[in-house]
Every structure is written in C-alpha cells, then in structure tokens.
Amino acid sequence: MTTPLLEVRGIDKSFGPVQVLHDVAFSAHAGEVTALVGDNGAGKSTLVKCVGGIYPIDSGDILFDGKPVQVHGPRDAGTLGIEIVYQDLALCDNLDIVQNMFLGRERRRGLVLDEASMEEMAQETLSGLSVRTVKSIRQQVSSLSGGQRQTVAIAKAVLWNSKVVILDEPTAALGVAQTAQVLELVRRLADKGLAVVLISHNMNDVFAVSDRIAALYLGRMAARVKTADVTHAQVVELITSGRSGDLGIMP
Ligand SMILES: Nc1ncnc2c1ncn2[C@@H]1O[C@H](COP(=O)(O)OP(=O)(O)O)[C@@H](O)[C@H]1O
Ligand SMILES: [Mg+2]
Asked: Residue 46 contacts by C-beta under 8 Å, 6 or more apart in sequence?
C-alpha cells in the first residue's frame, strides 16, 4: 500500500444544529481517479469544501503526502497543490479563456500584464492536456459549450502545478459526446500522475474512469473499494441504502 497523496480521517462537520459529515475517512492516490459517490445531500460537496479550505472542519485530520496539514482557506489548499473545480464552475462569461485561467493570479511585467506569457502558458496547458476542441484561447467564455467550459475550468486547475484535482460533478450538465471528452481528460490527469477525485452519481462515468470508489451515505463513509472489485448494482445499493451485502454501514 502506497501513502495516499491526500487523506482525511475522522472529519465531522455541522452547519448549526445539523451534522452533515460524521467521522468521515477518505483518501486519494497519485496516478489514480477516486470516485466520490453518494445521493444528493450525502455530503460530497461539503467534504471537498472542507478539504479545499472553504469550510472549517469541526474535528478530524487532513494529511498531505502522509503529513498532517492545516487548511484554513483556499490559499492553504492551493499552496499544497490542491485545486477544486466547483459544481458551479465560477468562470466569468465576459472574459476570454486566458483571462479566466489567470483570474486573480495574473502575470505582470513591470506595471502591465504579461499577456504573451499568459497566452503561452494557457496554450501549453491546454495542449499538454491534448485539448483540441477549443478554437482560440482569446475566445470569450460565454461563447463556449458546456464541455468546453468544463475543460477550461479543469485546465485552470492544473495550471498551478496542482497535485490533487477535485472535480465536483463535472459531467452533470453535459451531453454524451462532451461527457466522453471530459472523462478522457479526467483519465489523462491521473495518467500524468495527479491524484484526481471525481464526484459523480453517474455509474457509467464512475466505472469508465475510476480506480477506486468511495461511497458517502447520509454524511457517513459507507465503503471505500477498488472499482474492479464491485459491480454497478453494488455501488447503487451503497449509494441508496449505505450497504450492499457485507459492504457498507452495518446496523
Ligand atoms: N452552507 C450550508 N449551510 C447549511 N447546510 C448546508 C450547507 N451546505 C450544505 N448543507 C447541507 O448539507 C447536506 C449535504 O450537502 P452537500 O454536501 O451539498 O451534498 P452533496 O454534494 O452530496 O449533494 C445537505 O443536507 C445540505 O442541505
Ligand atoms: Mg454536491
């Protein structure tokens, strides 16, 4: 067993009186896609927002490369190399692809923006990910399809030497062809050595690209398994009832 690049243990998180995460353990390995699955409201987005420093955890530990770390904000997560592509993407429609990828982290040469080097880096990142669907990196994001937007958001996340990339439901709003493109990109990220976490409740997506599956049920981690060791039906059972045969939460 190799040390996971990202690991959390015993995470509890409440919003006011409502406890959303109960003693959650989760890990992601370099070079692998780990699918985080669970029904709506299971706590998937909350868990990754805790890892990303958006929400403070009430208790528990976050380990990076085996060492305990403190994540008090998105900046801490970014410094560690953890990038999250959120469900709502947070791209600016009125800006072009380069501007979006460097938003808030623009490169400057003296007093002016270094457009040439930002263009070059944006182009290199997209080419490095074998993205061929985007025609011009000076295209406004408002003119992109859903799949292209997702691609830009993912490229933005990997531009910063990230080591862990977490994608919150990247294919939820996409058609069949665009979904296939995004899943290929997800696989390529892992093949480049990143630890990729894919949140999804689409079993086809999960089985197409993941190496491992972690199933959350009502804020509790029901099971963490290798994808090759389970069937679609078992994972659906874990999602809907928190258990399947001898897997899952025992009463
Ligand atoms: N900021 C918040 N304040 C209060 N409750 C929240 C907040 N964010 C999420 N929740 C609640 O936490 C639970 C888990 O939500 P979420 O993590 O978004 O689930 P998932 O991503 O698995 O669909 C839900 O019951 C949701 O209503
Ligand atoms: Mg969610």
From this structure: 13, 20, 21, 55
pTM (whole model) above 0.90? yes
Taking the CA of residue 47 as reference, the ligand 1 atom at the shortest distance is 17
User: Going from the N-terminus, what domains does the chain have, and what CATH number goes with each?
Assistant: 6-93+162-248 (3.40.50.300)
Amino acid at 107: R
229-244 pLDDT per residue, tens:
999 999 999 999 999 9
What atom in ligand 1 is closest to the CA of residue 40? 23
Nearest CA to ligand 1 atom 24: 41
Cβ proximity of 195 and 82 under 8 Å = no
Q: pLDDT, tens digit, for every residue of 84-119?
A: 998 776 788 899 999 999 988 888 988 899 999 999
41 lines ligand 1 (CB under 6 A): yes
